Every structure is written in C-alpha cells, then in structure tokens.
Amino acid sequence: MRHFDPWSAEFVAYPYEAYAELRRTAPVVHHEPTGQWLISRHRDVSALLRDRRLGRSYTHRFSHEEFGQQPPDPAHEPFHTLNDNGLLDLEAPDHTRIRRLVAKAFTPRTVERLRPTVAALADELVGELLAAGGGDLIAAVAEPLPVAVIAELLGVPAGDRGLLRPWSAAITGMFELDPTPAAARAAVAASTEFSDYLRALIRLRRTDPGADLLSALIAAQEDGDRLTEQELVSTCVLLLNAGHEATVNTTGNGWWALFRNPDQLALLRSDVERHLPTAIEELLRFDTPLQLFTRWVLDDVEVAGVPIPRGSRVALLFGSANRDEARFADPDRLDLTRTDNPHLSFGAGIHFCLGAPLARLELTESFGALLRRAPDLSLAAEPTWQPGYVIRGLNELLVTP
Q1: Given this model, what pLDDT does residue 14 score?
Q2: What radius of gyration do the chain's Cα atoms show?
Q3: What pLDDT sits at residue 221?
Q4: Helix 164-172 vs helix 229-260: crossing angle, to nearest 10
Q5: SS (H, E, C) 116-154
Q6: Which of 96, 282, 344, 399 has the fewest C-beta atoms lying within 10 Å of its C-beta?
C-alpha cells in the first residue's frame, strides 16, 4: 500500500492514481499505518454507508473495553462532548430522535427562504472581488459566504460572525488522520469557546425568540420531547462545520477543475442557467472535499469476499468511489453535462448530509454570480494544497477578472 499515503503532499495533491490502483488490485485491504480497512469501490462504499452493522460510533452498544479501544484522552473531553452529541456521530435511537426534531425546524422551506439572502451575499462578495481587481477567490468568496449564511440562519449577530470560521477550522482539524497534539489543543479550545458562546445565545433566544433556526430548534418538539441544551449546541456547531467546510472546498476545488478544463468552463459560460445544475453535481463528484469517511464495524461483515471482524474501522474512500470506472463513464473526465451521477459526496443512509440542500443552494448562487459577473475570470497562479487529506482543499486560488 505504498501508493496510499495520506501524509504525503504529492498524494494529497492528486490521490486518484492511487485510488485507481486500489480499485484494480486491492479494493478491500487493511492499511497498517492507519489501522483501517480501505474500501475503494463505489458499490462497496455505497452499501456500507447503508449497512447498520457499521456505525459512526460504537458506544451505544459497547464500552471502550468491550470494543478493544482506548477511551479518549480526558484532556480532549470538550471536543468529544461537542462532537459525540451531534448527528454525525450518533446512532439510533438517539440519532433518529434528534434528526426528527432538527428536521422539524430545518425544513426545505427554511432553506428556500434563504435563497434571496444567499444570492445577495454572493453578489456582494463577487462585486468586492471584482472591485479589488481580483485576488484569492477562496478568501474573498468561498469562505465568507457559507459562514455568513449559517450565521444568518442561526441568528448570530453580524458583529460576532468573525469568530465562527476560526472555531470551525480548529474543530475540524480533529477529523484528520492522527491529528497532532497542537491540533487537538486548538480543537479543544475552540470547542469550549464555541459551546460557551452558543449557550449564551441559547439563553437569549429562550427569553427573546426570533425568526431564526436556533429559535426554531429550541421550540421544536414531538410528543413532549425537545432537544437538550447540549444537543442544541452540537447541532449548531455541526451545521456550521459540515456545511462550511464542504462548501468552501467544493468552490475552490471546483474552480481549479474548471480552469484546468477550459472546454468545460466555456460550455458552462455559454449557457449558465442550463448547465449549472448538473455542473454543481459534477464538481462535487470530480474532486470531492471529503475524501474519507470512517465507520466502526459493530458486527462481523464480509466485503467483496473479504471478512472484516467486529472492532475494526473502515475508511470509506469517497474520492475513489466517485471516480470508479465501474459506475461512472470516463470517470477521470470532467463532464458538466453528466446526468447519471450518483456521487457519494453527501454520504448515504441515515447519515446523509442534512445540509445538502443548503450546500447546493450556496454553490449554485456563488458559481452563478461569478460566471455572470466575471465572464473572463482566469487563474493568476497555480494553487497549492492544504496538508489535510480527509477534508481536502486549496490554500488559496488567485484569480483575475
């Protein structure tokens, strides 16, 4: 497995050749350096995302000792309390209960009502980029847009919105493979600060509710059941972290893909309204921002004839599944007209991304604003990749109008 090296800058910059080799020669294989089983084919990744013999957590069924795992470092408790009470890492019945309550507040209608706000924010940010004569597309448009949208959605005061991005970046650093002690300390500090901030905001909304999602989450109930304060905090943080990181990196990775495929960029520019819906899905497939998603094996399973015992951890390689030649025609070609496109960038099964409609809305409005207002947008310098592999994105993307 010398070709699969998530700590290599060369691999992070272009992991797709290694993925192709895995699919050909070892589609289910144990990777000693990470202690995980790598699953690289679309059909297997898709099936395991829906298989209830696997879970994001095991603590709903086993103690750490029963499962052969070391308990988390007590020093990391603020991060784990925050993370372990969010939908991403919960399993039934808690996941079912919380998702049902959140869905009562975070409805498709809630997202659709945001469309004018998202469109106006995207247009304003693009206008500022053009007025500056270009610059870093990620810092100028990709990063501030989803933060502003989530802040608007939750009712975070405008003056506090600058706090959110640093907290999000620090917390998601713990999702990488073997995070450093410095990354863990930053995640713990951010978890504490963000949780304290949201608890204060929740107290305010309990006494003075507004027309925002946080107030709706506080009010959501079913048969007398409501979200606890910790569940409210964890849900709000997940909405920011999951929605923000995916949207930022899909924007950066997507425009980098378009600049490398000028024929497809020209096609998109020729009829933005017609091609943008399928283009967004293709950009999500072609260079997905979340390359790897893990699951614990709760009961013995067999994948493609390979037995994987209980207590193992599998690494579902989204980036590889989305380039699987057995499922996608000519998968390494960017095709913005692709309609048969069952990419797994938002996951599948009970953990399918709750914020997918909002992410699609943000991507549609930001790409649309750039395509319409900057029809000659071009690359100013070849970008470099951030060191993280699990959440994979560019350091910056310098452009000129």
Answers
A1: 96
A2: 21
A3: 80
A4: 90
A5: HHHHHHHHHHHHHHHHCCCEEHHHHHHCHHHHHHHHHHH
A6: 96
Tokens representing residue 184 in the block: 């863990």
Query: Which domains, and CATH codes, for the chain?
Result: 71-289+330-400 (1.10.630.10)
Q: What are phi and psi of 259, to 5 degrees?
A: -65, -30
Instruction: State the pLDDT at residue 381.
Output: 97
pTM: 0.94
Tell me, what's the pLDDT at 138?
97
Residue with structure tokens 């699951």?
295
Q: 3-state SS string over the chain?
A: CCCCCCCCHHHHHCCHHHHHHHHHHCCEEEECCCCEEEECCHHHHHHHHHCCCEECCCCCCCCCCCCCCCCCCHHHHHHHHHHHCCHHHCCCCHHHHHHHHHHHHCCHHHHHHCHHHHHHHHHHHHHHHHHCCCEEHHHHHHCHHHHHHHHHHHCCCHHHHHHHHHHHHHHHHHHCCCCCHHHHHHHHHHHHHHHHHHHHHHHHHHHCCCCCHHHHHHHCEECCEECCHHHHHHHHHHHHHHHHHHHHHHHHHHHHHHHHCHHHHHHHHHCHHHHHHHHHHHHHHHCCCECEEEEEECCCEEECCEEECCCCEEEEEHHHHCCCCCCCCCCCCCCCCCCCCCCCCCCCHHHCCCCHHHHHHHHHHHHHHHHHHCCCCEECCCCCECCCCCECCECCCEEEC
Alpha carbon distance 238, 225 (integer Å)? 21
Contacts by 21-25, CB closer than 8 A, 24 or more apart: 22/317, 22/320, 23/320, 23/324, 23/325, 23/326
Nearest residue to 375 via CA among 347, 344, 342, 401: 401
Residue type, 277: P
Those residues of the chain that have pLDDT short of 50 are 1
User: Residue 34 has what pLDDT?
Assistant: 93
β-pair partners for 379: 399
Residue whose token pair is 């390689």: 317
CB 273 within 8 A of CB 289: no
Q: Give tens-digit pLDDT for 263-284.
A: 999 999 999 999 999 999 999 9
pLDDT for position 109: 87
Q: What pLDDT, on the 0 to 100 scale, is given for residue 2?
A: 57
